[in-house]
Each structure stands twice: as C-alpha cells, then as structure tokens.
C-alpha cells in the first residue's frame, strides 16, 4: 500500500543541475549528508495521531511511505544542504 501511495504522489527523482542558483543561506560550516538511517529514525519517531507539521501530511501517511519515502526525504534534505535552498514552509515566520 505504501508503495502505491508513494507512486501516486511522487515524480521520479531526476538529477538536476542547480549550480547556477545562488544559495540563500550562507553556512561557513560543512555538514555531513543525512544518512538513510537518520531519516528512517526521524520518520519512525513520529507519533501517530499527533497533529501534522506545516506540510499537513498526517504522521501515519509519512510512516506508511516506508523506505521509498525515506529515500525521497533523504534526497530532499541533502539537496537543501548542498544548495542552501530550503522550502519556504520550513523557514521561521518573518525570514
């Protein structure tokens, strides 16, 4: 079921060249990429039945996504670190 949900809600991960986009965050530090184990740990720690975050995706749906969703989240998080570009919804209000 999780695989069907993931297939219906996702586009294929196509490598993109974002090197011409200026980073919006200047970070003088070097951060290690997120591992699949770290992402999986964060996903499994989410409590079912709790209010969703700003993405409005219920925790049960995120947990049901399994490894395919964890891989997509890992790719997204590491792309944000690499480019310095983050979704507006992830930024604190006023920034």
Your description of this structure?
This protein has 95 residues and is an all-alpha fold. The protein has a domain at 37-46 and 55-84. Helices cover 44% and strands 0% of the residues. It is built from 4 helices and no strands. The chain has helices at residues 2-9, 36-45, 59-64, 66-83. α2 packs across α4. The mean pLDDT is 78.
Task: List the defining traits of the structure above.
0% strand; 4 helices; globular; 95 residues; mainly alpha; 44% helix
Radius of gyration: 15 Å
The largest sheet is: none
- The number of distinct helices, counting runs of at least 4 residues, comes to 4
Number of strands: 0
Uncertain spans, ≥5 residues at pLDDT below 50?
A: none
| Percent of sequence in beta strands | under 5%
Structural class of the helix and strand makeup? mainly alpha
What's the pLDDT, averaged over the residues?
Answer: 78
Could you outline the blueprint of secondary structure elements for this entry?
Layout (H helix, E strand, L loop, with lengths): L1 H8 L26 H10 L13 H6 L1 H18 L12
